[in-house]
Amino acid sequence: MNPDLIKLIKNYPIDKQYQEILKKKTIVSISGPTSSGKDTLINQVLNDPKFVKIKTYTTRKPRQLVDNIDDTNYFFIDFEIAKNMILQKQFLEVAIVHNNIYGTTYNQFDDDFKSGHIPILNIDVQGVLKYRNICNKLISFFLLPPNFRVLLDRYFNRQTNPSDLKTRLNTSLYELEVVLKSDWFYQIVSDDLEASVQEFKSILQQKRTRREYPNLIKELITDIQKYLRYN
């Protein structure tokens, strides 16, 4: 990827007038390591009509057994289109994740704010950091697989690209280390889907205090490091 484009993405400017709008709006973000169940949880949450998902633009290729069946999660675009959108400042936020470009646009939020919906985002930790700087009412969730073996099983149940897995695990390693050191996220262990959805709702209704799982996060970090070292 062109170094100038990488620099532009890292220092991507956000419209100042739109920042004032975002400061007053509630936005929900869901992040987590690869195969932690983010899309599955979001799809269940969307049964509540007050939520609406913000689709992400991405230059990554669709996953054959997942994205071709359900294309409601992403807008798949090629690199040149993404580059032009960046240069034209169409994105609200944009980042490089797993060596691909991911971003969300201004016009998606406009429609949802006008209709009174609460936008829900599936974004990486980089995106969360950007939104934290511009949205006073951001509620951030971080999903954790119950253990590394479950993460691997989920990954290989949907695709079998070992080189892609290593890229994703390196990103997950970075995100886990950020979450371990921060208190920005409501952490949920995605073991049972129904329980995860109920936990999500309880947090939004302020019926549950913040829980953290430092031991699990440390175990995941150690297991990912071992896998990357020996594979």
Quickly name the level 1 CATH class: Alpha Beta
Class per helix and strand makeup: alpha/beta
| N-to-C order of helices and strands | HHEHEEHEHEEHEHEHHEHH
| Averaged pLDDT | 87
Task: Compute the number of structural domains.
Answer: 1
Give the N-terminus to C-terminus distance in angstroms. Answer: 26 Å
Report helical residue fraction: 40-55%
CATH H level, superfamily name: P-loop containing nucleotide triphosphate hydrolases
Description of the molecule:
The protein has 231 residues and is α/β, with parallel strands linked by helices. It has one domain (3-230): Rossmann fold (3-Layer(aba) Sandwich), CATH 3.40.50. Helix content is 49%, strand content 20%. The protein has helices at 3-10, 16-22, 38-45, 64-67, 79-87, 106-115, 125-132, 148-158, 162-181, 193-204, 214-230, and strands spanning 26-31, 51-54, 56-58, 74-76, 91-97, 100-105, 118-122, 137-144, 185-189. The strands form two sheets. A five-stranded parallel sheet has the order 2-7-1-8-9, sandwiched between helices. Strands 4-3-6-5 form a four-stranded mixed sheet. A hairpin with a 2-residue loop joins strand 5 and strand 6 (100-105). The mean pLDDT is 87.
